[in-house]
Amino acid sequence: MRFKSRVAALLAGLCAASPLSAQDESSVTATAGYGYNSNPLLIPDGEESGFYELGGAAAWATARETYAFGGLAEARIRDYLDAAIESDENYRAAFVIANAGEADFTARAITLFNLIKSEDLRAEDALQRGRLAGTKGDLKPFIEAEVRTSSLGEGNGLFFETLRYNRGTVSPGASWLIAPWLEVGMAVEGSTTQYEEADAFGRIRDNKRVMPSVFVRYGKGDLSLVGAVSQLQGTWEGGFRDVDRTLFQAGAAYKLGKVTLSAEYSQTPQDTNFLVSPLTIASQGQVKLDWIVDAAHSVNVWARDLKIAYLGSDFMASAFSYGAGMSRVLNENAVLSFEINHTEAELIDGQEAERTLVMVSVKAAVQSNGAAGPAVNAQDFASTSRRRTRLD
């Protein structure tokens, strides 16, 4: 099967991405699962299929007197028993270096690679990002810069199309620590995007964007809050309408004993190949409950609402999903997990589709003395590509 042929390559890649030595801190995890998806393509009257899933990650980090560096490689493959359905694959890697010790500033540079492959999406990213931030006093200036090259393959409304582009971004700003539990700040993000080729209709989607924003963070006791407001303004070539859009982001989390309640809402601009739209705006809200039952058991339930607006048109796609999961610690190195979720979607053409997914998986981990260097976090990968959020 396709799945078996990829297992060896995946494990070999993870081993190669995790160089170990006596002075390195490292960890390796592997996940294997089996599940059922009632409609993998999320289309009206879609075919059902079982699937296998294999995932893994390898991380290493090293600290020196004045600097620290580390890396992370992750891979996930979901292969369907129905050979007519394309497998879902996601590969990503990051390498980071940062200063260490006492300093008046923090400096951090990260290199990221990301590859996504599925039935309706092909995407690649390679980027270099750097951040410099002050550490002294209550007012802390910062500046972040990024260069990237990307490709995005998706349906443009008539057929599948892949476009390549390059982008440079600069984001200066400052944050002010009003109190140990309250921080406010502002930033201005400016970017220039150049496409390497015209789209299928002969249009170049080159664009320039400016997005000022203000944000606030609160954290005291068991309650944490975040909020941000941004104004996205952009000009496009190729006859596309200019963009002037207010975007919001908010989040809250409250811990009550062994239970954590969280809610978040975000509006995110995303690149698209859709024939009449310069951008899409993904508006997503989610509520979640996490319950740590005891040292060996945990449970979570969640619900999420997603709407994708295609700017410059009246087209819209939406999905409402809900689900639950539970896990049991088998031993110090292994965790057994179960999840079930259901999605009800309205597609861009107005048709409706739904899907139920059930999956059981086992995750095994081997760790050596924790991590000594700078961490690669989820936010690093979250910004690798502002592309279409999948309805499922």
What can you tell me about this protein's structure?
- There is one protein chain.
- The protein is mostly beta strands and 392 residues long.
- Helix content is 5%, strand content 66%.
- The chain has an 18-stranded antiparallel barrel.
- The model is unreliable at 1-22 (pLDDT under 50).
Total number of beta strands: 18
| Average pLDDT metric | 89
Shape, please?
A: globular
User: What portion of residues belong to β-strands?
Assistant: over 45%
Helix content: under 10%
Question: TL;DR?
Answer:
The model is unreliable at 1-22 (pLDDT under 50). This protein has 392 residues and is mainly beta.
How does the SSE layout of this entry go?
Layout: H1 2-16, E1 25-37, E2 49-63, E3 67-80, E4 88-99, E5 105-117, E6 122-134, E7 139-155, E8 160-179, E9 182-195, E10 207-220, E11 223-236, E12 243-256, E13 259-270, E14 280-292, E15 297-310, E16 316-331, E17 334-346, E18 352-368, H2 378-382
Key structural traits:
392 residues, mainly beta, 66% strand, disordered N terminus
